[in-house]
Amino acid sequence: MAYIEGHARDQALLLPASVEDYVAADNPVRFIDAFVDDLDLGSAGFVRSRPKATGRPGYDPADMLKLYLYGYLNRVRSSRRLAAEAARNLELIWLLRGVRPDFRTIADFRRDNRAAFKAVFRAFVMLCRKLDLFGRELLAVDGTRLKAVNSRSRNFSRERLATYLAAVDARLDRYLAELDQIDRGEDAAGTGRGDTLATKIAKLREQRQASAALLGQLEDSGEGQISLTDPDARLMVAHSKVTVGYNAQVAVDAKHSLIVEQHVTNACNDMSLLAPTAGAAMDALGVERIDAVADMGYHSGDDIVACEAAGITPYIPRPHRGTAVGNGLFPKERFRYDPQADVYHCPGGQVLDIRYASVTRGHLSVQYSSPAACAGCQIKARCTKGRWRRINRGEHEAVIERMAARLAERPDILVIRKSTVEHPFGSIKQWMNQGAFLMRGLDKVRAEFSLTALAYNLRRAITLIGVPGLIRAVQA
Fold first, then answer.
1. Residues 272-286: pLDDT tens digits?
2. Which parts of the sequence belong to the Transposase DDE domain (predicted)?
3. Is the whole model's pTM more than 0.85, yes or no?
């Protein structure tokens, strides 16, 4: 039995007469074409959105945007690969009508219009809102660390530079002492060793000068670290993994796991990021109040207060911080506060009253304790290893306790958070293969992630509505 065979390469074929016949009605490129044509690129901030009257004609920004949307939707982000696809991919040939920009033009378009891609993302969010794809009741907020174009070896902190300078000084002292011995004729190594040492000393002094300059630059700027390849990237730790990168924040609507708001920062943790992220998402959804759930990395009294002031009802589990929990002692939650008497009741049934108040980094903190009660307590060994137990109450403690009570009434909301916000991150990193940035600089990285988030939302909307339904919504 023979195999399935193709036709001869020199055989004349009756192919379809136009490229239009190769693109199906439900092909995503048809929606990309309709969506971009409906945008006001000038209002979005794209440069050269109106052609000049004189000079050599340039490429239409609409065509370049269509090319990038297609690329990010199909896991092709490199400008060189996009240039190659534009010449051989039938879908792109249809989408661009045969236009074939070179890779430099493609790369320059993304760089020059880095501030405009966020507006395109928001335009698609408005389309999803028009299609009622958002529940507009609950947001899940989270962040993920994405690798930058900067290796760990080219990232320096003050501690690392100080340690390196101390080690270099020790080596220089050792080499100089050995060189002195050679000069006095006390070393049998001869002149060859002296020349080698002189070369090493010169190289170490050069390296020391460069490191000292970096340390001085850090001290002048007030920053804690510096990256040489991408100056805006920072060393970050996530789930015991250390990488030099950025912190990408998203607010995801719980109805269909669609991203409502996204932005990228180089902050090394998520504290103080909930209120601005959820607030921007609330504005995009057009609601005055909304619930927002996040993990314990967002737990911050100032941020919780800001959320409630903005109409956001936060749900954040309280982290177990402090030495008591680490030592297996009673956590702070076991001490019940009485707002009427302004005292704490400890697990042993004793009353802890105010000892003193202090201000730390602009925040008021009141300490409660009872040395006399702790001295005769039967369960003191389970409560403290000191002479008595101290409980600090911050100025935002009432707001935090109110949030803890809400969370106790809705324990399932933490499960909803995982299934909602982890879906975009899993899709972006695994299915879309976009766990690292290609560009350098915070503004350019933000442009990249806007395209990434838009591609994710586009894929989700196609799954939910279909390409014909999306096209009808654009044309309505």
1. 899 999 999 999 999
2. 346-460
3. yes
